[in-house]
Amino acid sequence: MRHKIQDLVRALEAVAPSSLQESYDNSGLLVGRWEQEVSQALLCLDCTEEVVQEAIDKHCELIIAHHPIVFGGMKRFNGADYVQRTVEMAIRAGVSIYAIHTNLDNVLKGGVNGKIAERLGLQGWRILQPMPGQMLRLDVYVPAENAAELEQALFDAGAGQVGNYADCRFAVEGQGSFTPIEGSDPYLGKQGKRELVQEVQLSVILPASLRSAVLKAMTDHHPYEEVAHHVWALDNAHPEFGAGLWGELPEPMSEEAFLQHLKVSMDLHNFRFTPRKHNRPIHRVAVCGGAGSFLIKKARQVADAYITSDVKYHEFFDSEKQLLLCDIGHFESERFTQERLAEILSHKFPNFATLFTQTNTNPVRYYL
After folding, report:
1. Around Cβ 212, how many Cβ atoms within 10 Å?
2. Distances from the Cα of 265 to the Cαs of 2, 76, 114, 213, 333, in angstroms?
3. How many CB atoms lie under 10 A from the CB of residue 299?
4. Across the chain, which distance is largest between two alpha carbons, in Å?
5. Contact 106, 20 (CB under 8 A)
6. Listed range (39-48, 109-118, 159-168, 339-348) with the worst mean pLDDT
7. Could you tell me the pLDDT band of residue 73, with boundaries at 50, 70 and 90?
8. 126 phi and psi, to 5 degrees?
9. Contact, 104 vs 111, CB < 8 A?
10. What is the dihedral of CA 43, 363, 103, 62, to 10 degrees?
């Protein structure tokens, strides 16, 4: 079945909103048009020339990659490097390229780290480093008789969820005052006459990623021509947005048993680690797919072991021998991301075909 790219992207970004990508990132539709219809997509970690050729051979009009092929600005297209050649090849073949990178890294459920946690069997996931600025508060004033309808519209748009509690709001009754002037079309009252109305101030919280949707629901279901409202940024951290996660093993393991468990669960041939100075069991485990050395100190505060990649030599010392620090490789930590993408799309579009790339895009090889 054919679907527009914009509809597929909407499903992916319902899980990982584009607003969650880091400032240096370049997630989104890199090649192609939003309204283009496609029948199947090729899923991969990295988009390379070989992957584009594979998409052509398998008649996939869309490539969905984790890493963007283009990070910075491109001023020339003369085939001077693999990035230019890959983009040129995709354009000539009519193959679209979409990337979902750090926004998929920064979600607790349905993201890169959740896939690692699933494979390790971790329970009770929590964000390791919450992302700031992701919670807002909306205050809106509405006639008392319309308050119930408006608050339900806000809830339906995604506002009012606090942890495991939905439909949360605070309401204060009061008296509103306004005078319609020339050019107005008032819901209540007449031009030139001051009106006093019994109103309710509704206050709800919402993720920053849902701001547009919630404000649209507010204006669509509010009776007034001009809606009095305020949006406030909160210091509260969103419990499901941020870098890394940590959870608990069903049963504590010895260090040796956990290392073997890690090797088998992540299908690893080898990996680097630094041991601890004590022999206490491993119970709490932190993970961060990709380059996660910036979270070592955070992981040390809450976990017995930390799984990530791209750790430099001197950064291993940051474990302070209190943390079993394991570097399993960048590709190895994120290669199951394509499974996560397939799960998201198949849930929304059960008849849409997604294929896993058979091209090994890992640029790192090990001489054994």
Report:
1. 11
2. 35, 43, 14, 39, 11
3. 28
4. 86
5. yes
6. 159-168
7. confident
8. -140, 145
9. yes
10. -30
CATH number for the domain whose boundaries are 112-130+241-333: 3.40.1390.30
- Strands of the sheet with 96-99, listed across from one edge: 28-31, 96-99, 62-65, 40-44, 353-356
This prediction has a pTM of 0.87
Instruction: Return the pLDDT at 173.
Output: 96
Taking CA atoms, 96 is separated from 32, 37, 61, 82, in Å, by 4, 10, 6, 17
Residue 133 CA: distances (Å) to CA of 45, 108, 176, 202, 231: 29, 16, 31, 21, 13
CATH of region 3-103+336-356, choose from 3.40.1390.30, 1.10.520.20, 1.10.260.40, 3.40.50.150: 3.40.1390.30
| 112-130+241-333 and 3-103+336-356 share a CATH fold | yes
Bridging pattern class, strands 96-99 and 62-65: parallel
Helices 82-93 and 49-57: crossing angle in degrees, nearest 10, is: 20
Which helix (H) or strand (E) segment is 123 a member of? strand 123-130
State the pLDDT confidence band at 67, using cuts at 50, 70 and 90: very high
| Cα 79 from chain centroid (whole Å) | 33
The half-sphere exposure of 81 on its side-chain side, counting CA atoms within 13 A, is: 6
The encoded tokens of residue 250 equal 């069903």
3-class secondary structure, 266: coil
To 5 degrees, how large is the angle CA 362–CA 366–CA 368? 150
Burial of 22 (0-12, 13-18, 19+ CB in 10 A): middle
